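Course assignment 3, question 2. Fill in each field.
Student: A.L.
Task: Predict the tertiary structure for the chain below.
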Amino acid sequence: MIAFNFEPGGDATSKELWIVPVAENGKPLAPPSKIELPLETYHMVAGWTPDNKIGLQLMNPEHNALYTVPASGGKAVQISPAGWPENPRWSPDGKRIYFRDATGEGPNISSVPAGGGEVTVVPFRTDRGVFESAPGGGNDISPDGKKLVFSGAVRVTKDNIISYEVDIYTVPAEGGEPIRITKSPGQDRFPCWSPDGKRVAFIRYSDPPKDNTYIMNICLVSAEGGEVRQIISESDKVFWSCIDWSPDGKSIAYFSKDNNIKVIPAEGGEPRVIVHVDKLSNFAEMAWSPDGKKLAYTCQGKRS
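Answer field:
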């Protein structure tokens, strides 16, 4: 017998395991029979055991959620329903938290009151099918709280080949038409606002990769769009992960491929090392303290 997943939607996930008996010459002896699985699987048929049982990996029900906790420590409070919320960002007034919501019909950018409550989707009114990319979507809120900046992806099909255009967009915080402010030859991700709200910093890499190695650059663009300016050189070894603008607007912090967090002047110049980290991750985060004297960050390996 041969066991296989059947994917009626063609999206690589399935709740149907089919089994077909075969003869020694490889021809089927009967039509496949279907077994309904209790949960979805994702290309995860492990094979047969010696006693003719089938091994499967099933996906657990969604259970992630957003929490807040006092900065001094204490009990974490769940503020969003269970689902797949990612990349939470405070609004400047501290009243709402915006996040990438991959639950249900997502991915969307949504928000929830900081004290918990109903989740509100930021509606995109566009025919281009823009959605927030991951990792590196951003969903950063402008200092005046009126706009979001994010890395938006658009699916493109040409000659039966599917690809994605990934550029930087802004959209009103209450929803509306996303405005594209970059047009990348590769992909633009991890955007963040300057403290005065006039510029956006982001990471760009171009296709095809150089010597099979993607070269990352930190770039700046006006919040209204226009000319993109690169402020960092290839030798600075930017890692494809979160960046953050210092509160005084003079510096940008980033993860580097030599396992350091570095800071570079926003107008360009020589970067300096802030701290060494054990292991890099595309999902690592960093954030300056409001007074610009400390930098909080996450990393794999030893706690910091």
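Instructor remarks: The mean pLDDT is 86. The chain has three domains: 2-56, 63-114, 122-297.
Grade: pending
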